[in-house]
Amino acid sequence: MKGKSTPVNQEDSAGSPDKGEPVFLVIGKLRRPHGLRGDMLMEVLTEVPDSLAAGAEVYIGDAYEPLRIQRCRWHGKLMRIAFEGREVREAVGKYRNTLVYVHSDDSPSLPEGEFYHHELIGLRVFDEDGEILGIVDQILETGANDVLLILNEEDQEILLPVIDSVILKIDLNQGEIRVHLLPGLLPE
After folding, report:
1. In this structure, are residues 169 and 177 in contact, taking their beta carbons and an 8 Å threshold?
2. What is the CATH number of domain 122-179?
3. Does 104 score more than 90 pLDDT?
4. Alpha-carbon distance 117 to 9, whole Å?
5. What are phi and psi of 187, to 5 degrees?
6. CATH superfamily entry for domain 7-106
7. Which DSSP string corresponds to 86-150?
8. Span 49-74, pLDDT tens digits
């Protein structure tokens, strides 16, 4: 599962939004001004940096201030980025250590079989026999593989690793995930 951009909305600093509210995905964190022409160094926090190109609109900070990218290029492990209308160092200094977002509708398409985390939040999870296990509440990033945190009807947590032997099918159109339960995955 690639595209691990974190979804956020204006009511909540992380997670899935209420119905009808826009979803913003964190793609980077502005670190510090670089040079005299308004460039900043940005830590890239997305595995799909395709949305980082001249002319693209991004949203800065908790207020989601819309800015258009004027230019960007890699600068070692960081991205050197500049915004239209912010051509001097003093105009961008206020953005130091601020998150950069894109609107989820503007995020690039992922290859077949890969999903953004926000697309999975709220999906119903069924076992192979069609029994509902619960709803995807969160996705935990563990390093080895992601883990779906499922809440069942009794608000108990079920943790399912996102591995081929467990996740059989993800169907966004149907709003469901089919899984194979390995021994020990369900709470006693």
Report:
1. yes
2. 2.30.30.240
3. no
4. 14
5. -65, 150
6. RimM (2.40.30.60)
7. --SHHHHGGGTTEEEEEEGGGSPPPPTT---HHHHTT-EEEETTS-EEEEEEEEEE-SSSEEEEE
8. 766 889 999 999 999 999 999 999 99
